[in-house]
Design a protein that fits this description.
The chain is mostly helical. The chain is about 65% helix and about 5% strand. The protein is elongated and about 110 Å long.
Length: about 675
């Protein structure tokens, strides 16, 4: 009986452990997945990530060599001769006595139709009776022939019909999708290393809706992640550095900036004009939708802040997270170790810059009473005007009538009259010897010095507990780029950006090349029926995929090449994109669930992001006439890539104008106006 009890206890423990692991895999918030990196050396994640990246390079080169020199000449990859095709189809329709199915279609629509028909044609597996006979004879070492009987012959006959090339290519596609997700993460890190500090500085000049939108665009483009921008915005709101009203407009800009990734991905189809047209239209339908939503909701929310008021009523009872504050994640715990193994980005540095802690940050927690007493001595107008205490001062330094405790100085000094209004300092004040013994501003009981301060005296407030040089820290804090390659932040960012962009193109090339063989015939017809079943179902699909990968950029960038080769139509791509827009808001919502301060404001920002996308979908998708606006705009942008003179450079011009030049000019005007 005792042995049975022990076995039952062990079985229950094992069952709990298994269920805990399964819950972790599904993203349960209470059990954080602990990744074991193993010993340092050739088995590390950084080396493994670079090995996988190199494999995609080699595979791409191998396929190109095969296609160029070894493969038998077959169908051309150039644009289809539409006029000849349409004439042949019309003649055939006359002979058959049927209506011409291509009548009334544009040339681009006919090309798209031809491309979809090519995908749905039955695939040739190449299995012939002669091949089966040779396979069975070789596998049985001549003991069994195709005419033999028995279970062994039947098993070998079945195995001879298996398409091993397709099985390998399916595995190869999933491998490239994994590397594609990894490459996007590495590319995001590279852009953060190159522009992380600059993007964080942008948040200082957000003082109106237009600058908020433009800075949201620029910041997201620089770090290649709306999730990162949203996280910074939520942290700024939580630290009283940014108002919810301005944060809403920055979220709108981040929504636009995140679509730059799939726009870049679409440029990988320059080799085929049809693919480039379809891919660029599929990518820019995301841009157009977001721009239309901003064009409508920005002036409305500027006139009356309905987003803030609505979300405040929904979030006003939210409490600070005190325990079990583990952010829910899905694929990130599995991709992040490999990405960080190559280069690990220190996001705290960007937060220090955006929150204005470049001068210093006090590590002592003072009470509001102590801070009000300190204000009486360092601020003018009887402690009510602190705008001149430090050159980096911003209005957010003062919260609820008193100076924020982390803004307390290391030392204050007095002049000949005992005034300390010009003696605020985070470092050792000039004019005092290094062996000078400063007086304590707060006594052992925490009581502040009252009355007039002594003239020409230095008082220690936060003292050695002030952390300085926070904004001068390196952004690169780990990974083989730091430990093995010994690279600078800019050097690592530039190299990884080049490697990531090359890897992005290689992965997309390998995925599309493999899918052209794997998804042919019945598989293509099934996929087209699934995505063509219902637009609202596609919204759910796009949302589900984005929730899993926690990035709308990854979802849309993965779907763009599939749309480029004609497997998914633009009408099906739009709802998938809309679902991705909703799915990406989950990142902000999960971040709001674990905030340690100002939970109401954090939830407001996260919910504003969600309802901005929901209201946009309700405005532009259900009504067919409204739906045609983003679809026709995207088709126009796609057709521009086929222009005989500047078609090939149009995607580059469009990307720079929309995502860099216009936001950059507006940012420059905002900076000049602030100064």
């Amino acid at each position: 009986e005792e042995g049975a009890e022990v076995r039952q206890r062990k079985h229950a423990q094992h069952r709990r452990s298994t269920m805990s692991y399964l819950r972790t895999l599904l993203g349960a918030p209470k059990e954080k997945l602990v990744h074991d990196p193993g010993e340092k050396g050739p088995e590390g994640e950084g080396e493994a990530a670079m090995t996988m990246l190199c494999l995609t390079y080699f595979a791409t080169v191998g396929i190109l060599i095969y296609e160029k020199f070894l493969k038998k000449k077959g169908e051309s990859n150039e644009m289809v001769d539409v006029k000849t095709f349409a004439a042949d189809a019309a003649a055939k329709a006359v002979v058959d006595g049927k209506t011409d199915a291509n009548e009334g279609l544009t040339e681009d629509e006919i090309r798209d139709k031809i491309s979809q028909e090519m995908w749905t044609q039955p695939a040739q597996d190449g299995t012939t009776p002669e091949f089966r006979a040779k396979f069975i004879k070789a596998a049985s070492f001549g003991a069994i022939t195709v005419d033999s009987t028995g279970p062994v012959r039947d098993a070998l006959y079945f195995l001879s019909g298996v398409n091993y090339l397709k099985i390998f290519l399916i595995i190869f596609v999933f491998f490239n999708i994994w590397v594609f997700l990894l490459v996007l993460s590495i590319m995001g890190t590279s852009f953060k290393l190159l522009g992380g500090k600059d993007s964080a500085k942008m948040f200082d000049v957000v003082d109106n809706p237009i600058s908020g939108v433009m800075i949201g665009i620029l910041a997201t483009v620089l770090v290649q992640s709306s999730s990162t921008t949203t996280s910074i915005i939520i942290s700024l709101v939580g630290a009283n550095e940014l108002s919810v009203r301005n944060a809403v407009f920055m979220i709108m800009g981040a929504n636009i900036g995140t679509s730059v990734t799939n726009t870049i991905v679409a440029m990988g189809h320059f080799a085929n004009k049809d693919d480039l047209r379809r891919g660029f239209a599929a990518a820019t339908v995301h841009d157009v939708f977001n721009l239309l939503c901003v064009a409508v909701f920005l002036p409305l929310n500027w006139i009356y802040p309905f987003f803030e008021n609505m979300t405040y009523e929904m979030a006003k009872n939210q409490k600070v997270c005190e325990e079990d504050c583990v952010k829910t994640e899905f694929l990130s715990p599995y991709i992040s170790p490999y990405s960080k193994g190559v280069a690990n980005y220190d996001k705290k540095v960007a937060n220090y810059i955006s929150q204005g802690y470049c001068g210093g940050e006090c590590g002592t927690s003072y009470t509001s009473t102590q801070m009000k007493a300190l204000q009486k001595h360092i601020c003018t107008n009887d402690g009510n005007d602190c705008s001149k205490i430090h050159k980096n001062f911003e209005g957010s330094w003062v919260a609820e009538g008193y100076l924020y405790k982390k803004r307390a100085p290391a030392y204050i000094t007095t002049d000949a009259e005992g005034s300390a209004t010009a003696g605020f300092s985070y470092t050792w004040p000039s004019g005092f010897a290094s062996d000078y013994e400063a007086k304590d501003y707060f006594d052992v009981n925490g009581t502040a010095t009252t009355g007039t301060l002594e003239p020409n005296t230095m008082y220690e407030v936060c003292g050695s507990k002030v952390k300085t040089g926070l904004c001068n820290k390196r952004l690169l804090k780990g990974g083989i780029a730091l430990t093995d390659w010994k690279m600078t932040d800019d050097g690592a960012g530039a190299l990884l950006a080049i490697l990531a962009l090359a890897g992005l193109c290689s992965c997309l090339f390998c995925i599309v090349y493999s899918l052209q063989i794997v998804i042919k015939g019945a598989a293509a017809r099934v996929l087209q029926r699934v995505v063509g079943f219902n637009g609202y179902f596609n919204i759910l699909v796009g949302m589900g995929i984005t929730i899993m990968v926690q990035s709308s950029s990854i979802t849309t960038a993965t779907l763009t090449p599939i749309a480029a080769v004609g497997l998914i139509g633009l009408e099906d791509m739009l709802p998938l994109t809309l679902g991705a827009n909703i799915g990406t808001t989950l990142t902000g919502i999960m971040g709001a669930t674990v905030v340690a301060s100002n939970p109401v404001e954090a939830w407001q920002v996260a919910l504003c992001h969600l309802f901005f996308n929901i209201f946009g979908i309700l405005l532009w998708y259900p009504i067919p006439k409204m739906r045609r606006v983003p679809l026709n705009a995207a088709r126009f942008l796609g057709r521009m890539t086929t222009h005989p003179k500047f078609g090939k450079v149009f995607p580059l011009i469009y990307t720079f104008v929309v995502f860099f030049i216009i936001p950059g000019i507006c940012y420059g005007i905002a900076v000049a106006a602030t100064q």
